[in-house]
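Sample entry (266 residues):
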Amino acid sequence: MWSAAAPGWERHARFVERREATVSDLLLASLRPGTTVLELGCGPGGLGLAAAERVGPSGSVVLSDVVHDMLAVAERAVAERGLPQVSTRLLDLEDLDLPDRSVDVVLCREALMLVPEPSRAAAEMARVLRPGGHAAVSVWGPRPDNPWIAVLLDAVGDAVGMEVPPPGIPGPFSLDDADRLAALFRGDGFADVQVRAVATPWEGPSFDEWWNVVPALAGPVGTMLAGLPPETAEAIRAACEQELVRYESATGLEVPGLTLVATARR
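Predicted structure, serialized as tokens:
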């Protein structure tokens, strides 16, 4: 399902980076020239490419993802930028095929919330970090604080008669509690664990732009939406528009969003 979403992520990669600019700055704050960086769940690769600029030619960055088609998007971005300090790897967040104590910084932007066993993934981050290394992770905050995506999930769920995502399936809000997120890292040998909430609104010129962008980035939900009868998809679109009209302004659409950013030292 995430393979099917890869073209949408490539098409809207610049939008993703604009929306995530504040979060990305926090995630990259510990980077210095010469740093060895591993990005997990890299998607189209924007965060890792920004990391490469900070670590410079004396550093190195590995962009990794478990989805081959998504990694291919990142590989094309790397080739376009011509950064020799950047490489790519197909890696499972919960079972990293890397040596112990091999990197200085681990980055993971909005992927940890999608794995079945986030505690196992946190343990893997700790294992591959050198002593004194840093982990920096972001996940989405509570569903009510993220109507920019929750409106779509609710409308699809109402149309198909089921909760989206289904209970027990890792989803966008599976790590939406700051205390639980912090506990993941405190339990795996990290120190100086901090979690902060960052406003990440969706901003665009119109509802039409929201409808063009958000379903294309929604992974399994976007795939589900594409497979529905046209009349059902149109009803979902109308329901979303009705909910989002409250966020219209003179300059377009601004829908609230909230991201949790966790940082920790090994």
